[in-house]
Amino acid sequence: MAFKERVFSGVQPTGNLHLGNYLGAITKFVALQESHECIYCVVDMHAITVWQDPAELTRNTREVTAAFLASGIDPKKQIIFNQSQVAEHAELAWVFNCVARLGWLNRMTQFKEKAGKDRENASVGLYAYPNLMAADILVYRATHVPVGEDQKQHLELARDIAQKFNNDFSESIKAHGFGDAFFPQPEPLIQGPATRVMSLRDGTKKMSKSDASDNSRINLTDDADAIAQKIRKAKTDPHPLPNDVKELDQRPEADNLVGIYAALKETTKAEVLLEFGGAQFSTFKNALVDLAVAKLGPIGAEMKKLVGDPAYIDSILADGSVRAKAIASETMSAVKDIVGFVRR
Ligand code: TRP
Hints:
Helix content: 40-55%
Structural class: mainly alpha
Number of strands: 5
CATH class of the largest domain: Alpha Beta
Largest sheet: 3 strands, parallel
Bound molecules: tryptophan
Low-confidence stretches: none
Strand order of the largest sheet: 1-2-3
């Protein structure tokens, strides 16, 4: 059976959005609107797998929504909403809790990393998190999922769950007229080059909201002065920029700054080195400041404006939730029939 092409992705509202989120995820979301029907979800239920301050969770949910809007995602053509407003995510996640095997979840490297040594004290939600993620995607029977490297294993699990559901219930799926498979196998959309944005203080570490140093990242809401200051302070090495991209392999900080420039300019690192090969970092950083301020300044300003109008943001999320729910409830009704739940 052919499934309608549909994109789904989620972003957790758990802290300041930064350049890594923007170049790694949000710009891809924006581009996919041209070719696909897209559903973008602020996954507040995933966020609480680790304790969140309630007021901050609310603020962060609105901030991620503002970032989607300010970056150019069209909330009328696409769907933007927050997960907790569509109860079908949790409902399908329960069914998937009963489809996925303990052994599968035990292999998830992100749980091992996040739970750390104190595994006994991690929430059950953190452990079952990938099942909810599978439900997010499959409740829309989405076919394509833009995700970063760190989420590929979770997406594979979603594929395994879809397949096991299709197998376990194959007779019932057929009997209810859904053909051979009810759920598609969602595919990762792997991002282009230079999307791994590293810390400005250490080119070997990912840019992260949890880094103690705010100078390690460019937040989407940083103003022009902050952007300029952070780039000027960014760690470099003592050599001029190379002419050959291959030489960047041994120079993580240079590689990162060239990569950021290329991504913001929507070009390649080789092109950037054609222009800046042989230049000193001071010269290159000036150009990077100008480019970053030109690209990110307006987004940050728009985000601030939007966040200042929570009623507007909430109306976008409410509208998106209603439209999301229309799709999700249809899937859930079918799932109930397939599983054998009596329903109205
Ligand atoms: N787990 C993802 C992350 O932390 C967020 C997420 C939740 C997601 N549900 C999703 C991403 C569904 C893609 C599809 O980045």
